[in-house]
Design brief:
By secondary structure, this protein is an alpha/beta fold. It is built from 5 helices and 5 strands; from the N terminus they run E-H-E-H-E-H-E-H-E-H. It is 46% helix and 18% strand.
């Protein structure tokens, strides 16, 4: 199961479609605060987070996931439109496994998800 957080409905549907093609169930969220409230019940195997979210942003969510006793080890992909090297470094230092800059190829996102979840391609 993959936790997906993005405040753009079109992007959420794109992520859901990519995950469905990979045979993976998605738990979708439109803001960071909902992720914090629901991450225990979702119990994800991987997270795909937009950086700029209402409520908690992607950096705060990475830190929250890494601090969670049961979810600290899950792979985390952060998607952002920001190209600043400092932001990418901060996200990686906080514990993100991957930072993907928008626009990106859905095929590339799927390949990274399959690789991080060790799914057959």
């Amino acid at each position: 199961r993959v936790l997906v957080a993005d405040d753009e409905p079109v992007t959420l549907r794109l992520h859901q479609m990519v995950l469905r093609q990979a045979g993976v169930e998605a738990a979708l969220f439109e803001d960071g605060d909902s992720v914090i409230l629901e991450m225990d019940s979702v119990s994800p195997d991987l997270a795909v987070l937009d950086y700029q979210l209402p409520g908690k942003n992607g950096l705060e969510l990475v830190a929250a996931l890494r601090a969670h006793p049961k979810l600290a080890g899950i792979p985390i992909i952060v998607v952002t439109g920001y190209r600043e090297l400092e932001l990418k470094e901060a996200l990686l230092e906080a514990g993100a496994n991957e930072v993907i800059i928008k626009p990106f190829s859905p095929r590339m996102l799927r390949a990274r998800i399959e690789e991080l979840l060790m799914l057959p391609a």
